[in-house]
């Protein structure tokens, strides 16, 4: 790898104009493309001391061997040129929102003489029109089954089609009128093409005309006493409406909008987009991508409830890349459709006028609802307006149905990111590789088959609690989870994570030393804790220590835990700290952190363990806070002790219901006499 200082441009040679820059490696390949309002200020950030750079950015500048730039007239041109270069060079270090290969789609092979509709999952190919993606494979098959009643397009493979063409008789679908049977000449090419165009039109969203046409035909057949035909048309209309009902109405019928939301962690980002046309959700797509580390704010540590500072940049990159790709895809599809139409006209040997087709919906809607505004809102809006050929409104919904839909989209993004992590951790091969990665990175004698992790949760030093989660063979072992109410570090009235980590470590490994001295059979039969401040989701003690103990934090937290290890004589457990800021792994008595590759299985497992400890701590903290707030209104009642407060809350269910109760009803609680009941009633109604 090259030293970044060896190819750093001379001072003053970089212009201060807006532009686009490229990093190349030794072989001249473009490894990263970026844009900047001020090229000099932006590029100088890459040549800071390596320790201040994000790990992925650090890897990029050391992989690079040269940097070059192009000055443009405006920031909008910079956005366009950046997108063009990313598509052209496919740089390794850029975020690429590639087509999602996991969602099933409905495909139509429009290039074939007799196009067929079929279920498809995979990369897109030329000569095939795609609809969806759908959330489940059964949704594609159900849609096909319903629509072939109205549009009897063939769904068989080419092999089946050729076999029945040679036999001279149709397949079962042909006999039950769910296929037009072009294989036996039941319809000619022109008639079959009309069926295909109707199918494509319906799937493209042009449904109103179809529903109106079937309704009119049904009424006409009924008036002419053609009851069998009217019944068939009625069933066809029901099938069409059933397909339409599956596309949920979420907004007003005249609403065309895309709703976009992100969910992120320190390493990755998940994005979901819902396409709403005529008020209905027509499609849903999602991606999970690795962050580049080049986004503003990428090196900041996120606190609880704090918005990710990289979101504006991620949103901007997604909007430019997604809609530019969409416009290009529509253009290619239209060219492909024209070529196919010309081929059909030539093949039929007749001079036909081009059929008037409805204009396809624009890939860029009038309204784009986002969770966070893009970094350069004005420039992005101008670019999208140019792609659409009309104004585009990018905004954050504040209330009503649109805000509710945005929350739904965000939940989908969060679930997608969660499932992405679970998929990696849940795979046996990935788990084995993860444990091996951790063993090699930390220089351990054996793989850490048992991992424990602790995390602290509080709000400004109040209700301080800690969690301890356990993973065995890379999977959570929930019956060994522990929860702690912090005593020593919580009394000073402010946050003291270092002291809390020390307390939890002492209590956990003090118990381990006690367990080692106990009879193994007695340990196995033990059902409760001696320390009433400990709570568990299981009944048994820890009979053996972990190979790896993780504390959430950096060097101060690790050193505090190491002091407890030295005090208790713990020498058979590897101790590390995982800092959220840059996902650095800190080892005791080491001035430099251990950096695992961002995309390694080991890093994903450490993240999963840390996130689970954080989730478990947050859950327990909320329970404690809720319990305290629930009883707070009764705390100042004279003569009412903790036991009676608990009995009152259990009896009535909440303080609000106690306040609504009469003196006689309060007296019904065990241990509450007339005088105390009157005191409680008076106190609650004075507030």
Automatic annotation (TrEMBL):
Cellular compartment(s): Cytoplasm
Listed GO biological process terms: nucleotide-excision repair; SOS response
Annotated UvrC family homology region profile domain residues: 259-565
Gene Ontology terms: cellular component: cytoplasm; excinuclease repair complex
Skewed-composition ranges (Acidic residues): 521-535
Keyword NAD among record annotations: no
InterPro entries: GIY-YIG_endonuc (IPR000305), GIY-YIG_endonuc_sf (IPR035901), GIY-YIG_UvrC_Cho (IPR047296), Hlx-hairpin-Hlx_DNA-bd_motif (IPR003583), RuvA_2-like (IPR010994), UVR_dom (IPR001943), UVR_dom_sf (IPR036876), UvrABC_protein_C (IPR050066)
Residue ranges of domain GIY-YIG in the record: 16-95
GO molecular function: DNA binding; excinuclease ABC activity
Predominant localisation class: cytoplasm
Gene3D superfamilies according to UniProt: 5' to 3' exonuclease, C-terminal subdomain, GIY-YIG endonuclease, UVR domain, UvrC, RNAse H endonuclease domain
Region (Disordered): 515-537
Domain of life: Bacteria
Known role: The UvrABC repair system catalyzes the recognition and processing of DNA lesions. UvrC both incises the 5' and 3' sides of the lesion. The N-terminal half is responsible for the 3' incision and the C-terminal half is responsible for the 5' incision.
Subunit structure: Interacts with UvrB in an incision complex.
Similarity section: Belongs to the UvrC family.
Protein's recorded name: UvrABC system protein C
Species: Corynebacterium wankanglinii
Gene of this entry: uvrC
């Amino acid at each position: 790898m090259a030293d970044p200082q060896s190819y750093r441009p001379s001072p003053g040679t970089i212009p201060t104009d807006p532009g686009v820059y490229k990093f190349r490696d030794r072989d001249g390949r473009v490894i990263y493309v970026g844009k900047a309002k001020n090229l000099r200020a932006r590029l100088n950030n890459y040549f800071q001391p390596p320790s201040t750079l994000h790990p992925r950015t650090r890897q990029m500048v050391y992989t690079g061997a040269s940097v070059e730039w192009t000055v443009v007239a405006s920031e909008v041109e910079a956005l366009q040129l950046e997108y063009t270069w990313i598509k052209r060079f496919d740089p390794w270090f850029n975020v690429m929102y590639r087509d999602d290969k996991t969602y099933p789609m409905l495909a139509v092979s429009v290039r074939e003489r007799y196009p067929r509709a079929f279920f498809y999952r995979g990369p897109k190919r030329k000569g095939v029109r795609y609809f969806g993606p759908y959330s489940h494979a059964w949704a594609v098959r159900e849609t096909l089954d319903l629509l072939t009643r109205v549009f009897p397009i063939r769904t068989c493979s080419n092999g089946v089609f050729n076999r029945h063409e040679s036999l001279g008789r149709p397949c079962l679908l042909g006999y039950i009128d769910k296929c037009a049977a072009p294989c036996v000449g039941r319809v000619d090419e022109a008639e079959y093409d009309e069926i295909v165009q109707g199918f494509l039109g319906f799937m493209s969203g042009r449904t109103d005309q179809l529903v109106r046409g079937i309704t009119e035909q049904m009424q006409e057949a009924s008036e002419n006493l053609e009851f069998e035909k009217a019944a068939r048309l009625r069933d066809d209309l029901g099938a069409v409406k059933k397909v339409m009902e599956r596309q949920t109405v979420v907004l007003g019928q005249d609403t065309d909008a895309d709703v976009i939301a992100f969910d992120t962690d320190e390493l990755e980002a998940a994005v979901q987009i819902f396409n709403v046309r005529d008020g209905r959700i027509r499609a849903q797509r999602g991606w999970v991508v690795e962050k580049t580390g080049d986004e503003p704010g990428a090196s900041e540590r996120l606190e609880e409830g704090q918005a990710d500072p990289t979101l504006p940049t991620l949103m901007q990159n997604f909007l430019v890349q997604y809609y530019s790709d969409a416009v290009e895809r529509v253009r290619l599809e239209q060219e492909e459709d024209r070529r196919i139409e010309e081929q059909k006209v030539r093949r039929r040997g007749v001079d036909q006028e081009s059929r008037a087709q409805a204009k396809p919906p624009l890939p860029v809607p009038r309204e784009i609802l986002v969770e966070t505004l893009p970094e350069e809102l004005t420039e992005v809006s101008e670019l999208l307006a140019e792609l659409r050929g009309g104004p585009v409104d990018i905004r954050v919904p504040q209330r009503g149905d649109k805000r509710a839909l945005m929350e739904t989209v965000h939940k989908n993004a969060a679930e997608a990111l969660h499932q992405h992590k679970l998929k990696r951790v849940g795979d046996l091969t990935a788990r084995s590789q993860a444990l091996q990665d951790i063993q090699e990175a930390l220089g351990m004698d054996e793989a850490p088959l048992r991992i424990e992790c602790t995390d602290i949760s509080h709000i400004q030093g109040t209700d301080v609690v800690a969690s301890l989660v356990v993973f065995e063979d890379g999977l959570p072992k929930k019956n060994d989870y522990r929860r702690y109410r912090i005593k020593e570090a919580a009394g000073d009235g402010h946050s003291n994570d270092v002291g809390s980590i020390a307390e939890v470590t002492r209590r956990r490994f003090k118990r381990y030393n006690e367990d080692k001295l106990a009879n193994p059979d007695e340990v196995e039969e033990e059902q409760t804790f001696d320390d009433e401040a400990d709570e568990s989701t299981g009944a048994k003690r820890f009979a053996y220590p972990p190979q790896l103990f993780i504390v959430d934090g950096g060097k101060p937290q690790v050193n505090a835990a190491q002091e407890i290890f030295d005090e208790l004589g713990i020498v058979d457990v590897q101790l590390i700290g995982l800092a959220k800021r840059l996902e650095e792994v800190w080892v005791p008595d080491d001035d430099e952190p251990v950096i695992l590759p961002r995309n390694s299985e080991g890093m994903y497992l450490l993240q999963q363990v840390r996130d689970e400890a954080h989730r478990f701590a947050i859950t327990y903290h909320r329970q404690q806070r809720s319990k305290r707030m629930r009883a707070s209104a009764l705390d100042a009642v004279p003569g009412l002790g903790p036991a009676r407060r608990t009995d009152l809350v259990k009896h009535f269910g909440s303080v609000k219901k106690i306040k609504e109760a009469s003196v006689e009803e309060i007296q019904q609680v065990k241990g509450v006499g007339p005088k105390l009941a009157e005191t409680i009633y008076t106190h609650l109604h004075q507030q």
